[in-house]
Amino acid sequence: MSNRLLVGTRKGLFRIERDASGGWGMAQSWFLGDPVSMLLPEPDSQRLHAALDLGHFGVKMQRSEDGGATWSEAPVPSFPPKPDGLEDKDPMRGIDIPWSTQLIWALEAGGPGELWCGVIPGGLFHSSDGGENWSLVRALWDDPRRQKWMGGGYDFAGIHSILVDPRDFRHVTVGVSVGGIWTTPDAGAHWELIGAGLRNAYMPPELVHDPLVQDAHRVVHCPARPERLWMQHHNGIFRSDDGGSNWQELNDVAPSSFGFAVAVHPSNPDTAWFVPATRDEKRFPVNARLVVTRTRDGGQHFDVLHQGLPEEPAYDLVYRHALDVASDGDRLAFGSTTGSLWVSEDQGDCWQTVSKHLPPVLCVRFEG
Amino acid sequence: MTTLSFTPNLRRHVETPAARVEGATVRQVLEGYFQANPQVRGYVLDDQGAVRRHVAIFLNQELIRDRTELSDPVAEGDDIFVVQALSGG
């Protein structure tokens, strides 16, 4: 049972701990003043990774081998030289796509010593030595369809979700905003664009069902049944029962099927959580009432959970990496743009406010 | 020899001692510096070796012209100063 979580924010990294009486509070902070765009506590390890977005001075990686007691700078996933004369432009605005890491947006462990990292502007990087060396996954980057990826909320496309199959570490599936769902059976050597049944309503009618233009906000899979995927899509909530090849849209989810974050129970694939918002560009809780939605039957029904969440009008948005479920499947945490953080110990039935005064929350992850 | 120095704002992240470095262009001076201080490179240049978007390089109090190739010529006794162009919030 996890008693600790890490919270990456616009102004630093925080550790939140549970005390003996069941209260959750701040225990430690690091990198104060610096945005922490992504973090990864490696499973069954003291090793932590934090991705810093230093603005002027670029993206940096920090790594701790001792659970956060000490940190040191680690190599950053970097692009190879761009070939002279190669045209590689963002299709929406016609400007050059930088072959330079602008934001670390996804970080996951694979097999022993293996890490995967997704970045803006759309690169996927692999390390087989714990992050000492990174290499760009060329088969995906060089796929001509990659040049049709578009930026969503950012200037350029990015990889925000990386699903490593726990039964076969070579089987990896990634979510791209905006560029659909891609899967590899062989650790990145070959890629297939998947996603039948997805629907992106804001595209021209003939492209609505094109897998390449699907605006996945966040994709997760159930570790105990990795073929079950849940997606919070720009357009709504989708479920796949076959590893992402085919999707079913779940309609009429109150109060809204729009949002960014999704979490799935680690052993029960039918249980998943979402944090709904007013669509499309408004992006605050429906009627200013912050709630979490939960299904326990694969999406046939959704509970609207609000006990312990603000009674007063709330304008929090929960970013795509800012909701997490612990390995026990009971404890949940999410943080918001107002710097608020909540924890539940009963699958979301009741929530405890940990803080209302953190910096805006970018990512949340339980340790252990 | 060219004198190369850095904004003190960088010291929070990485050691950037001022140094006197050989080189006929801004690129050569920087590369000479990075040989002795490899960790500084990623703070100043992007993955393609161009100046980061929010970093400015002054050569004798004038902004350099070539931020991509860093081909601006330098002469004996010149000063190069690396600063951040303010952005963010």
Number of domains of chain B: 1
- Form type of chain B: globular
Distance between the termini of chain A: 8 Å
Looking at the overall shape, the CATH architecture of chain B is Roll
**Secondary structure tally: strands of chain B:** 5
How do the helices and strands follow one another from N- to C-terminus of chain B?
EEHHEEE
CATH fold-type name of chain B: Ubiquitin-like (UB roll)
Oligomer: heterodimer
SSE order of chain A: EEEEEEEEEEEHEEEEEEEEEEEEEEEEE
User: Can you tell me the overall shape of chain A?
Assistant: globular
Radius of gyration of chain A: 19 Å
Number of helices of chain A: 1
* Estimated share of beta-strand residues of chain B: 15-25%
Strand content of chain A: 35-45%
What does this structure look like?
The complex is a heterodimer of chains A (368) and B (89). Chain A is an all-beta fold. Chain A contains one helix and 28 strands. Chain A has a four-stranded antiparallel β-sheet with strand order 3-2-1-28, with no helix packed on it. In chain A, a hairpin with a 7-residue loop joins strand 22 (292-295) and strand 23. Chain A is globular, with a radius of gyration of 19 Å. Chain B has 89 residues and is of the alpha+beta class. Chain B has a single domain, classed as Beta-grasp domain (Ubiquitin-like (UB roll)), CATH 3.10.20.30. Chain B has helices at 26-36, 41-44; strands at 2-6, 19-21, 55-59, 62-63, 79-84. Chain B starts with a strand and ends in a 5-residue tail after the last strand. The chains are: A mainly beta (368), B alpha+beta (89). The interface between A and B is medium-sized, with 16 and 20 residues.
